Amino acid sequence: MFNINLSNEWDELIETIEKSAAASAGYRLIDPVLAAWERSVGLGEDTRRVLFGKKQLPFDSSILNYVDFLKGKAREEKEIEVGTDESTRRTKLKKCPDGRKKTDSLFDRINTAVSEVAEDTPKILPGDAMTPRERIDRHVRFEPADRVAFAPLLGFHTPRAGGVSVREYMTDGKLAALAARRAWDLYGGFDMLPVNFPMGYVFPLVPESHSRFCAKWFLPADDDLPKMDEQPRPVDYDVIREEGLSPFIRTERGALPGEFLRMAGQGAVFAAETALNFPRADLFQPYALGVINHPADLLSMWLGFEKFMTDCALDPVKLREACERLAPGLVELGLLTGRLSGGKQILYGVSRISGSWISRKMFDDLFAGVFKSQVEQAVDSGFSLTYHLDNDYTPLLDFFLELPKQSGYMHLDQTDLFKAKEVLHGHLCLMGNLHPGLLAAGSEADVTAQCERLIKEVGAGGGFILASACEVPINTPVENLKAAKSAVDRWGWY
After folding, report:
1. What is the domain partition of the chain in residue ranges?
2. Measuring CA to CA, which residue among 274, 153, 258, 162 is closest to residue 213?
3. What is the pTM of this model?
4. Which of 129, 132, 183, 292 could bridge 161 with an S-S bond, Cβ 3.0-4.6 Å?
């Protein structure tokens, strides 16, 4: 393992820009244009507040202020780390192994694309009477569907099933898209497409729970999983009030912006390949096209989980106030990706305020109000939510009755899905929750038995998407995922 720490050329680019009077004049020229565009896509004062608090800023545009801040942050980190071992600083991301020798021929892929374009209703299972998007939409609205939907979140199982290494999957847009298509063909398809370029997951430029601009990541040299190292920062709530989330942002001495640009290029390649490999993506429900975080998740990761839990008991007022101050801006930033892509499905990610960690009283007193306000802000803006709820929310299930009815689907991890059906049927569609241990280490018979129970009990009356709990483990045997799909074909019809 080694730290992703590269793009020393970015250092030189920063210095060139800083010395350029023309660049400074250019910033002033485009500032009002960018600011007007930002307002048109929903970025306003709440965005400035979440990023910079009460700071005096040089530009009207939040984007230009952010770029200016990253430049200053890079200079600051270079000065602090002046004694850093130069060999570490200049570590380069080694070129990916030439996996392209494993790619499918362009002719075959075009031929497959043409044949799929001609299909008005893709047949994921024989007998399907509607498209996957129609099926999931009906489940969300609790309207009659032809069968239970099946949409496991493949995650890092995709490269394993698609015949590339994790490293290739994370750094090469073409190989990532081809791996997704091979995984799709291996299993015969699902109701959601397994398409995700994972560096987009770890490389959002704005503050987000898993962003490399806010957390230290390690990339595998070959086929291990990537790792995130949560490092608590010595920041308090007064600093957050005055400076927003900017004190948590890091650049690895200016290397990260350069690598972000490189990965944006690979993301464009991934999007082009995906359009070829999945030509009728419009017929499938996207899992999510953007991410909104509850502020508590960010604070628990960046202040440290021990401090966060202590503050829940000993400093609740400042913690709640920080969440309330940050919440609207995080929604504005989270909806931006959806607006730019034209999609309406946004992930609302929450894990650290579940019943696994805090009491119901703490949840109600500190976090429920922000949870509800963020959801309502997104729904009022015309978006549907993927409630990605890691850990156990069983003690909190009645809270979800306070959220907008049929506002999305709840992807549950450790929550009791049978209890959730009792409380929430007709209100919110349920998604989940095949245990990772079952998928990775259980027998086909074990997987089939659990799927049968979920389909017959939770799936009764609609409103159910059979899926993994969070994502499919990388080492899941192919036979186990096929057994889950076969269970849908056997018991999932209405």
Report:
1. 1-80+158-189+196-277
2. 258
3. 0.88
4. 183
